[in-house]
What does this fold into?
Amino acid sequence: MTFEGRLETATGVAALVHIRVDERTMSMRSGRRPMGSWSLDEVRVERISLFRFRLTIGDEELVLVPKDPTGFASAAGAVVDLRAGRHGLRDRIKEVAGQPSAR
It folds into this structure.
């Protein structure tokens, strides 16, 4: 599957990207320029809000804002860190699951 989105670096640089995810790899390009291709085992995808994902590739961290966050999360196997309750996501998931929230 291919996804479009905005990729942000720690220094604030942003680029519009196309990300292709298949069963084994993730590859990125910006326009016609390839940015890289990695085994999914090398890429950690963490959902940090409903619309934003942290991609950790080696020692580099990037933030992705895909146009289709649900599809991207499913295709990339995104991890949801519920420990910190980021942006209320933990409470929303608990509410959907029928558990009481911390509010």
The two ends are 38 Å apart (CA to CA). The CA atoms of residues 4 and 84 lie 28 Å apart. The mean pLDDT is 84.
